[in-house]
Amino acid sequence: MSNIIEVPIETQGQSSRGSGFMAALVLLTLIGGGAGAGLAKYISDYTEEEVHGRLRQQQSFADTLPFSPSTRLQSLDPLVTNLSSPKEAWIRLQASVLLEDDVDGDVAVMRKKVEDDFLTYLRTLTLSHLEGGIGLQHLKEDLTERARTRTKGQVHEVILESVVIQ
Fold this sequence. Notes:
alpha+beta
């Protein structure tokens, strides 16, 4: 009697199919991992370029400002007065001014002078002067010019925060 083990042919085929499946699975895993790593690298590089581009854009924006970056904002008290025509019309103005960093004298005194000048000017306006977008633009330009004159050029611009006419 011989001790020969007979292996059915079907078992040998299943074993080779299983190892072929495992090889294909490993190959697909490697391809997927490589593609994922490549995509992650591409996204990382793209994001880094985008961030650097925006930082350069922000730096160039600061260069285009019509005033120095050290300019500061000073809020004025709300001004309420009646208009010259019609007498029953009232105006409430909330504004701020952009000041140079090195202001000559006391800021509070300068602010009160500008507020008094604005109040005097607002009393001379009529309702027809303030109608529409052009009226508000003229009001802003006039107030800016008056503030520059009153402060000897220390005010860059007047910013109108709110204008209410009743």
